[in-house]
Amino acid sequence: EAFANIGKRDERVGAYLTLNEEGARAQAAALDDKLVSGEARGLLFGLPVGVKDNMVTEGLRTTCASQFLSNYNPIYDATVVARLKQAEAVTIGKLNMDEFAMGGSNENSSFHPVRNPWDLTRVPGGSSGGSAAAVAAGEAYFTLGSDTGGSIRQPASYCGVVGLKPTYGLVSRYGLVAFASSLDQIGPITKNVEDAAYVLQAIAGHDAKDSTSANVEIPDYLSALTGDVAGLRIAVPKEYLDGVDPKVKAAILEALCVLEGLGAVWEEVSLPHTEYAVAAYYLLASSEASSNLSRFDGVRYGVRADHSGNLLDLYLESRSQGFGPEVKRRIMLGTYALSSGYYDAYYLKAQKVRTLIKQDFDQTFDKYDVIIGPTAPTTAFPLGSQVGDPLTMYLNDILTIPVSLAGVPALSVPCGFADGLPVGLQIIGKPFDESSILRVAHAFE
Ligand code: GLN
Predict the structure, then answer these.
(1) Which residues form the active site (predicted)?
(2) Total Cβ atoms within 10 A of residue 233
(3) Which value does ipTM take for this structure?
Protein backbone atom coordinates (compact mmCIF):
# COMPACT_ATOMS: atom_id res chain seq x y z
CA GLU A 1 0.00 0.00 0.00
CA ALA A 2 2.82 2.39 0.85
CA PHE A 3 4.54 1.74 -2.49
CA ALA A 4 1.21 2.07 -4.31
CA ASN A 5 0.64 5.46 -2.68
CA ILE A 6 4.20 6.51 -3.50
CA GLY A 7 3.54 5.51 -7.13
CA LYS A 8 0.32 7.51 -7.20
CA ARG A 9 1.40 10.60 -5.27
CA ASP A 10 5.10 11.08 -4.86
CA GLU A 11 5.68 12.65 -8.23
CA ARG A 12 3.68 15.60 -6.87
CA VAL A 13 4.67 15.44 -3.18
CA GLY A 14 8.39 14.73 -3.64
CA ALA A 15 8.88 13.13 -0.22
CA TYR A 16 11.35 10.41 -1.25
CA LEU A 17 14.92 10.69 -2.50
CA THR A 18 15.70 6.96 -2.69
CA LEU A 19 13.39 3.95 -2.66
CA ASN A 20 14.33 0.57 -1.25
CA GLU A 21 11.67 -1.46 -3.01
CA GLU A 22 13.64 -4.61 -3.62
CA GLY A 23 15.18 -4.64 -0.16
CA ALA A 24 11.86 -3.89 1.50
CA ARG A 25 10.05 -6.64 -0.36
CA ALA A 26 12.76 -9.13 0.57
CA GLN A 27 12.59 -8.07 4.21
CA ALA A 28 8.79 -8.30 4.18
CA ALA A 29 8.91 -11.75 2.57
CA ALA A 30 11.20 -12.97 5.36
CA LEU A 31 8.70 -11.65 7.90
CA ASP A 32 5.90 -13.41 6.07
CA ASP A 33 7.26 -16.77 7.19
CA LYS A 34 6.76 -15.67 10.77
CA LEU A 35 3.09 -15.08 10.16
CA VAL A 36 2.54 -18.78 9.83
CA SER A 37 5.23 -20.11 12.16
CA GLY A 38 3.70 -18.46 15.22
CA GLU A 39 7.10 -17.09 16.33
CA ALA A 40 7.12 -13.95 18.52
CA ARG A 41 6.84 -10.77 16.47
CA GLY A 42 8.73 -7.52 16.87
CA LEU A 43 7.07 -4.40 18.26
CA LEU A 44 6.77 -2.79 14.81
CA PHE A 45 6.28 -6.04 12.90
CA GLY A 46 5.88 -5.44 9.18
CA LEU A 47 5.26 -1.69 9.38
CA PRO A 48 6.66 0.28 6.43
CA VAL A 49 8.96 3.06 7.65
CA GLY A 50 10.63 5.90 5.76
CA VAL A 51 13.86 7.31 7.19
CA LYS A 52 15.09 10.90 6.86
CA ASP A 53 18.08 10.93 4.56
CA ASN A 54 20.54 12.09 7.24
CA MET A 55 20.51 8.70 9.02
CA VAL A 56 22.88 6.19 7.51
CA THR A 57 21.52 2.96 6.07
CA GLU A 58 23.82 0.12 5.11
CA GLY A 59 24.03 -0.19 1.34
CA LEU A 60 21.23 2.33 0.82
CA ARG A 61 22.21 5.76 -0.48
CA THR A 62 22.28 8.49 2.17
CA THR A 63 22.56 12.01 0.78
CA CYS A 64 21.45 14.53 3.43
CA ALA A 65 19.74 16.04 0.33
CA SER A 66 23.19 17.39 -0.65
CA GLN A 67 24.99 17.06 -3.98
CA PHE A 68 28.09 16.44 -1.88
CA LEU A 69 26.75 13.04 -0.78
CA SER A 70 24.78 12.22 -3.93
CA ASN A 71 26.88 9.06 -4.40
CA TYR A 72 27.36 8.04 -0.76
CA ASN A 73 26.50 4.46 0.20
CA PRO A 74 27.10 3.90 3.92
CA ILE A 75 28.67 0.69 5.15
CA TYR A 76 26.68 0.50 8.39
CA ASP A 77 23.26 1.25 9.87
CA ALA A 78 22.59 4.07 12.30
CA THR A 79 21.58 2.72 15.72
CA VAL A 80 17.97 3.85 15.18
CA VAL A 81 17.85 2.03 11.85
CA ALA A 82 19.25 -1.13 13.47
CA ARG A 83 16.65 -0.85 16.24
CA LEU A 84 13.85 -0.49 13.70
CA LYS A 85 15.08 -3.64 11.98
CA GLN A 86 15.19 -5.42 15.32
CA ALA A 87 11.57 -4.37 15.91
CA GLU A 88 10.84 -5.80 12.43
CA ALA A 89 9.78 -2.57 10.71
CA VAL A 90 10.50 -2.53 6.97
CA THR A 91 12.59 0.35 5.61
CA ILE A 92 10.97 1.44 2.35
CA GLY A 93 13.11 4.43 1.48
CA LYS A 94 14.99 7.60 2.36
CA LEU A 95 13.21 10.88 2.77
CA ASN A 96 13.83 14.33 1.38
CA MET A 97 14.92 17.13 3.71
CA ASP A 98 16.63 20.50 3.76
CA GLU A 99 20.30 20.04 2.88
CA PHE A 100 22.13 18.84 6.02
CA ALA A 101 18.90 19.60 7.96
CA MET A 102 19.39 23.34 7.58
CA GLY A 103 16.06 24.96 6.88
CA GLY A 104 12.42 25.21 7.80
CA SER A 105 10.59 24.69 4.51
CA ASN A 106 12.36 21.84 2.71
CA GLU A 107 13.17 24.25 -0.11
CA ASN A 108 16.89 23.85 0.66
CA SER A 109 16.98 20.28 -0.67
CA SER A 110 19.50 20.18 -3.51
CA PHE A 111 17.34 17.61 -5.34
CA HIS A 112 13.78 18.98 -5.33
CA PRO A 113 11.44 20.60 -2.82
CA VAL A 114 8.72 18.69 -0.97
CA ARG A 115 5.11 19.87 -1.29
CA ASN A 116 2.55 19.87 1.49
CA PRO A 117 -0.05 17.12 0.80
CA TRP A 118 -2.82 19.36 2.20
CA ASP A 119 -2.09 22.05 -0.40
CA LEU A 120 0.55 21.37 -3.03
CA THR A 121 1.33 25.08 -3.43
CA ARG A 122 2.57 25.22 0.16
CA VAL A 123 5.68 24.02 1.98
CA PRO A 124 5.55 20.94 4.25
CA GLY A 125 7.88 22.65 6.76
CA GLY A 126 11.42 21.51 7.40
CA SER A 127 13.92 20.24 7.70
CA SER A 128 12.12 16.87 8.04
CA GLY A 129 9.60 17.92 5.37
CA GLY A 130 9.79 14.60 3.50
CA SER A 131 9.23 12.68 6.75
CA ALA A 132 6.09 14.65 7.64
CA ALA A 133 4.67 14.76 4.11
CA ALA A 134 5.17 11.01 3.62
CA VAL A 135 3.05 10.21 6.69
CA ALA A 136 0.39 12.75 5.72
CA ALA A 137 0.19 11.32 2.19
CA GLY A 138 0.07 7.66 3.30
CA GLU A 139 3.47 7.03 1.69
CA ALA A 140 4.78 5.35 4.86
CA TYR A 141 3.12 4.06 8.00
CA PHE A 142 5.49 6.14 10.08
CA THR A 143 8.82 7.90 9.61
CA LEU A 144 11.87 9.08 11.50
CA GLY A 145 12.90 12.72 11.52
CA SER A 146 15.62 14.70 13.24
CA ASP A 147 15.12 17.89 15.23
CA THR A 148 17.86 20.42 15.93
CA GLY A 149 15.73 23.53 16.31
CA GLY A 150 12.26 22.26 15.46
CA SER A 151 12.67 20.05 12.41
CA ILE A 152 10.38 17.26 13.64
CA ARG A 153 7.72 19.39 15.32
CA GLN A 154 7.29 22.21 12.79
CA PRO A 155 6.79 19.97 9.70
CA ALA A 156 4.48 17.71 11.76
CA SER A 157 2.45 20.81 12.60
CA TYR A 158 2.28 21.98 8.97
CA CYS A 159 1.34 18.51 7.68
CA GLY A 160 -1.24 17.60 10.34
CA VAL A 161 0.64 14.66 11.86
CA VAL A 162 2.25 13.85 15.22
CA GLY A 163 5.96 14.64 15.71
CA LEU A 164 7.95 13.94 18.87
CA LYS A 165 11.35 15.38 19.72
CA PRO A 166 12.61 13.32 22.65
CA THR A 167 14.82 14.60 25.47
CA TYR A 168 18.40 15.25 24.32
CA GLY A 169 20.24 11.96 24.85
CA LEU A 170 17.21 9.62 24.96
CA VAL A 171 17.63 8.33 21.39
CA SER A 172 21.06 7.40 20.02
CA ARG A 173 22.49 9.64 17.32
CA TYR A 174 25.11 7.13 16.20
CA GLY A 175 24.87 7.20 12.42
CA LEU A 176 22.97 10.50 12.27
CA VAL A 177 25.00 12.92 10.13
CA ALA A 178 25.76 15.65 12.65
CA PHE A 179 24.44 19.19 12.17
CA ALA A 180 24.70 20.73 15.67
CA SER A 181 25.76 18.01 18.06
CA SER A 182 24.58 19.68 21.27
CA LEU A 183 21.05 19.95 19.86
CA ASP A 184 20.39 17.11 17.37
CA GLN A 185 17.79 14.50 18.36
CA ILE A 186 16.01 11.78 16.38
CA GLY A 187 12.30 11.11 16.86
CA PRO A 188 9.15 9.61 15.33
CA ILE A 189 6.63 11.21 12.99
CA THR A 190 3.34 9.29 13.07
CA LYS A 191 -0.36 9.46 12.29
CA ASN A 192 -1.35 9.44 15.95
CA VAL A 193 0.03 9.55 19.49
CA GLU A 194 -0.24 5.82 20.17
CA ASP A 195 1.99 5.10 17.18
CA ALA A 196 4.51 7.65 18.48
CA ALA A 197 4.63 5.78 21.80
CA TYR A 198 5.28 2.48 19.98
CA VAL A 199 8.07 3.89 17.84
CA LEU A 200 9.72 5.69 20.76
CA GLN A 201 9.63 2.42 22.72
CA ALA A 202 11.54 0.73 19.92
CA ILE A 203 14.24 3.38 19.41
CA ALA A 204 14.86 4.89 22.88
CA GLY A 205 17.59 3.70 25.20
CA HIS A 206 21.28 3.79 25.94
CA ASP A 207 23.83 3.20 23.20
CA ALA A 208 27.51 2.87 24.00
CA LYS A 209 28.32 4.09 20.49
CA ASP A 210 26.96 7.60 21.23
CA SER A 211 28.85 9.39 24.00
CA THR A 212 25.90 11.72 24.64
CA SER A 213 23.45 8.85 25.00
CA ALA A 214 21.77 8.91 28.43
CA ASN A 215 21.86 5.82 30.57
CA VAL A 216 18.33 6.00 31.91
CA GLU A 217 15.67 3.39 32.43
CA ILE A 218 13.12 3.35 29.62
CA PRO A 219 9.54 3.34 30.91
CA ASP A 220 6.61 1.60 29.23
CA TYR A 221 5.35 4.50 27.13
CA LEU A 222 2.17 2.70 26.11
CA SER A 223 1.02 2.39 29.69
CA ALA A 224 1.12 6.20 29.92
CA LEU A 225 -1.78 6.46 27.48
CA THR A 226 -4.49 6.36 30.13
CA GLY A 227 -6.63 9.26 28.93
CA ASP A 228 -6.46 10.68 32.46
CA VAL A 229 -5.29 14.30 32.79
CA ALA A 230 -7.40 15.25 35.82
CA GLY A 231 -5.47 17.63 38.08
CA LEU A 232 -2.68 18.11 35.53
CA ARG A 233 -1.01 21.53 35.85
CA ILE A 234 -0.40 23.24 32.52
CA ALA A 235 1.70 26.38 32.00
CA VAL A 236 0.96 28.53 28.95
CA PRO A 237 3.78 31.01 28.24
CA LYS A 238 2.44 34.38 27.19
CA GLU A 239 5.44 34.75 24.86
CA TYR A 240 4.07 31.75 22.92
CA LEU A 241 0.71 33.41 22.24
CA ASP A 242 1.82 36.99 21.55
CA GLY A 243 2.35 37.64 17.90
CA VAL A 244 1.11 34.32 16.54
CA ASP A 245 -1.51 34.23 13.77
CA PRO A 246 -4.90 34.91 15.48
CA LYS A 247 -6.45 31.81 13.90
CA VAL A 248 -3.61 29.64 15.22
CA LYS A 249 -4.06 31.22 18.64
CA ALA A 250 -7.80 30.49 18.55
CA ALA A 251 -7.13 26.80 17.81
CA ILE A 252 -4.68 26.61 20.72
CA LEU A 253 -7.12 28.25 23.16
CA GLU A 254 -9.79 25.82 22.05
CA ALA A 255 -7.44 22.90 22.71
CA LEU A 256 -6.78 24.27 26.21
CA CYS A 257 -10.57 24.35 26.76
CA VAL A 258 -10.75 20.68 25.82
CA LEU A 259 -8.01 19.83 28.31
CA GLU A 260 -9.78 21.92 30.95
CA GLY A 261 -12.94 19.93 30.26
CA LEU A 262 -10.92 16.78 31.02
CA GLY A 263 -9.95 18.16 34.44
CA ALA A 264 -6.59 19.81 33.74
CA VAL A 265 -5.90 23.35 34.94
CA TRP A 266 -3.91 25.95 33.03
CA GLU A 267 -2.33 29.28 33.89
CA GLU A 268 -0.45 31.88 31.93
CA VAL A 269 3.27 32.10 32.78
CA SER A 270 6.29 33.92 31.40
CA LEU A 271 9.44 32.42 29.86
CA PRO A 272 11.19 35.80 29.78
CA HIS A 273 14.24 34.85 27.71
CA THR A 274 12.23 33.48 24.76
CA GLU A 275 12.96 36.53 22.61
CA TYR A 276 16.71 35.80 22.64
CA ALA A 277 16.40 32.13 21.66
CA VAL A 278 16.50 32.48 17.88
CA ALA A 279 19.63 34.66 17.91
CA ALA A 280 21.41 32.34 20.35
CA TYR A 281 20.40 29.25 18.39
CA TYR A 282 21.61 30.50 15.01
CA LEU A 283 25.00 31.36 16.51
CA LEU A 284 25.39 28.07 18.37
CA ALA A 285 23.95 25.79 15.70
CA SER A 286 26.00 27.46 12.95
CA SER A 287 29.18 27.31 15.05
CA GLU A 288 28.75 23.60 15.65
CA ALA A 289 27.82 23.05 12.01
CA SER A 290 30.94 24.81 10.77
CA SER A 291 33.01 22.39 12.81
CA ASN A 292 30.99 19.25 12.02
CA LEU A 293 30.93 19.92 8.30
CA SER A 294 34.70 20.27 8.06
CA ARG A 295 34.79 16.49 7.52
CA PHE A 296 33.36 16.98 4.02
CA ASP A 297 36.56 17.63 2.15
CA GLY A 298 36.15 15.65 -1.05
CA VAL A 299 38.52 12.97 0.27
CA ARG A 300 36.68 11.06 2.93
CA TYR A 301 33.06 11.11 1.76
CA GLY A 302 30.98 11.78 -1.29
CA VAL A 303 31.76 13.68 -4.44
CA ARG A 304 35.28 14.91 -5.26
CA ALA A 305 35.84 17.84 -7.60
CA ASP A 306 37.82 16.91 -10.76
CA HIS A 307 41.00 18.53 -11.99
CA SER A 308 42.16 20.08 -8.74
CA GLY A 309 45.71 21.39 -8.86
CA ASN A 310 46.74 20.61 -5.30
CA LEU A 311 45.22 19.41 -2.03
CA LEU A 312 43.99 22.83 -0.94
CA ASP A 313 42.28 23.35 -4.30
CA LEU A 314 40.72 19.92 -3.97
CA TYR A 315 39.16 20.88 -0.62
CA LEU A 316 38.10 24.27 -1.88
CA GLU A 317 36.58 23.10 -5.13
CA SER A 318 34.87 20.06 -3.64
CA ARG A 319 33.28 22.21 -0.92
CA SER A 320 32.37 25.02 -3.33
CA GLN A 321 30.65 22.58 -5.67
CA GLY A 322 29.24 20.19 -3.06
CA PHE A 323 27.48 22.53 -0.62
CA GLY A 324 24.38 24.59 -1.41
CA PRO A 325 23.91 28.26 -0.51
CA GLU A 326 22.23 27.84 2.91
CA VAL A 327 24.90 25.40 4.07
CA LYS A 328 27.63 27.82 2.99
CA ARG A 329 25.86 30.65 4.80
CA ARG A 330 25.84 28.64 8.05
CA ILE A 331 29.47 27.58 7.71
CA MET A 332 30.54 31.19 7.19
CA LEU A 333 28.41 32.47 10.06
CA GLY A 334 29.70 29.75 12.38
CA THR A 335 33.33 30.18 11.40
CA TYR A 336 33.03 33.91 12.01
CA ALA A 337 31.37 33.46 15.41
CA LEU A 338 34.12 31.06 16.52
CA SER A 339 37.06 33.10 15.29
CA SER A 340 39.46 34.70 17.74
CA GLY A 341 38.28 38.12 18.83
CA TYR A 342 34.63 37.28 18.23
CA TYR A 343 34.33 34.10 20.28
CA ASP A 344 33.55 35.87 23.57
CA ALA A 345 31.20 38.37 21.98
CA TYR A 346 29.13 35.82 20.09
CA TYR A 347 29.64 32.16 20.93
CA LEU A 348 30.23 32.56 24.65
CA LYS A 349 27.42 35.08 25.00
CA ALA A 350 25.05 32.74 23.17
CA GLN A 351 26.00 29.91 25.55
CA LYS A 352 25.11 32.14 28.51
CA VAL A 353 21.75 32.96 26.94
CA ARG A 354 21.20 29.24 26.46
CA THR A 355 21.66 28.70 30.21
CA LEU A 356 19.12 31.44 30.99
CA ILE A 357 16.60 29.82 28.64
CA LYS A 358 17.13 26.46 30.30
CA GLN A 359 16.52 28.12 33.69
CA ASP A 360 13.21 29.56 32.42
CA PHE A 361 12.09 25.97 31.79
CA ASP A 362 13.47 24.58 35.08
CA GLN A 363 11.64 27.22 37.09
CA THR A 364 8.37 26.64 35.27
CA PHE A 365 8.60 22.88 35.76
CA ASP A 366 8.95 23.41 39.54
CA LYS A 367 5.26 24.30 39.53
CA TYR A 368 3.75 22.76 36.39
CA ASP A 369 3.65 19.31 34.77
CA VAL A 370 3.73 20.42 31.15
CA ILE A 371 4.03 23.60 29.11
CA ILE A 372 1.66 24.11 26.19
CA GLY A 373 1.58 26.49 23.26
CA PRO A 374 1.51 26.49 19.47
CA THR A 375 4.23 24.59 17.58
CA ALA A 376 4.64 27.36 15.01
CA PRO A 377 3.35 30.92 14.71
CA THR A 378 1.56 30.24 11.40
CA THR A 379 0.28 27.41 9.25
CA ALA A 380 2.18 26.20 6.15
CA PHE A 381 3.19 29.12 3.93
CA PRO A 382 3.35 29.19 0.10
CA LEU A 383 6.41 27.72 -1.60
CA GLY A 384 8.84 30.42 -2.63
CA SER A 385 7.37 33.06 -0.31
CA GLN A 386 10.26 33.16 2.19
CA VAL A 387 13.15 31.42 0.52
CA GLY A 388 14.85 34.69 -0.45
CA ASP A 389 14.66 36.04 3.08
CA PRO A 390 16.62 33.88 5.52
CA LEU A 391 15.88 36.08 8.56
CA THR A 392 12.10 35.75 8.15
CA MET A 393 12.60 32.03 7.66
CA TYR A 394 14.70 31.80 10.86
CA LEU A 395 11.97 33.59 12.85
CA ASN A 396 9.48 30.79 12.10
CA ASP A 397 11.42 28.71 14.64
CA ILE A 398 10.76 31.00 17.57
CA LEU A 399 8.45 28.52 19.35
CA THR A 400 10.47 25.35 18.80
CA ILE A 401 14.03 26.60 19.36
CA PRO A 402 13.80 27.33 23.12
CA VAL A 403 12.91 23.65 23.74
CA SER A 404 15.91 22.54 21.70
CA LEU A 405 18.28 24.84 23.58
CA ALA A 406 16.95 23.52 26.90
CA GLY A 407 17.19 19.87 25.76
CA VAL A 408 13.67 19.06 26.98
CA PRO A 409 11.17 16.85 25.12
CA ALA A 410 8.22 18.20 23.12
CA LEU A 411 5.52 16.82 20.87
CA SER A 412 3.36 18.43 18.20
CA VAL A 413 -0.16 17.04 17.87
CA PRO A 414 -2.78 18.31 15.38
CA CYS A 415 -5.39 20.46 17.19
CA GLY A 416 -7.53 21.91 14.42
CA PHE A 417 -7.37 24.00 11.28
CA ALA A 418 -6.89 27.59 10.29
CA ASP A 419 -8.19 28.39 6.82
CA GLY A 420 -8.22 24.70 5.97
CA LEU A 421 -4.59 24.10 7.00
CA PRO A 422 -3.54 22.02 10.02
CA VAL A 423 -2.47 23.66 13.29
CA GLY A 424 -0.13 21.89 15.72
CA LEU A 425 -0.34 22.02 19.52
CA GLN A 426 3.07 21.82 21.18
CA ILE A 427 3.26 19.95 24.48
CA ILE A 428 6.57 20.36 26.31
CA GLY A 429 7.70 18.12 29.17
CA LYS A 430 10.33 17.76 31.87
CA PRO A 431 13.57 16.04 30.87
CA PHE A 432 12.94 12.31 30.27
CA ASP A 433 9.23 12.71 31.02
CA GLU A 434 8.05 11.72 27.55
CA SER A 435 5.31 9.71 29.30
CA SER A 436 3.52 12.87 30.46
CA ILE A 437 3.54 14.58 27.09
CA LEU A 438 2.32 11.40 25.39
CA ARG A 439 -0.42 11.08 28.00
CA VAL A 440 -1.62 14.65 27.51
CA ALA A 441 -1.45 14.44 23.72
CA HIS A 442 -3.29 11.12 23.71
CA ALA A 443 -6.04 12.40 26.04
CA PHE A 444 -6.45 15.44 23.84
CA GLU A 445 -6.43 13.52 20.57
N1 GLN B 1 14.84 25.54 10.93
C2 GLN B 1 15.94 25.34 11.84
C3 GLN B 1 17.25 25.54 11.11
O4 GLN B 1 17.21 25.86 9.98
C5 GLN B 1 15.86 23.98 12.46
C6 GLN B 1 16.51 22.91 11.68
C7 GLN B 1 16.49 21.58 12.36
O8 GLN B 1 15.87 21.40 13.41
N9 GLN B 1 17.22 20.64 11.78
O10 GLN B 1 18.30 25.41 11.66
Answers:
(1) 52, 127, 151
(2) 13
(3) 0.97
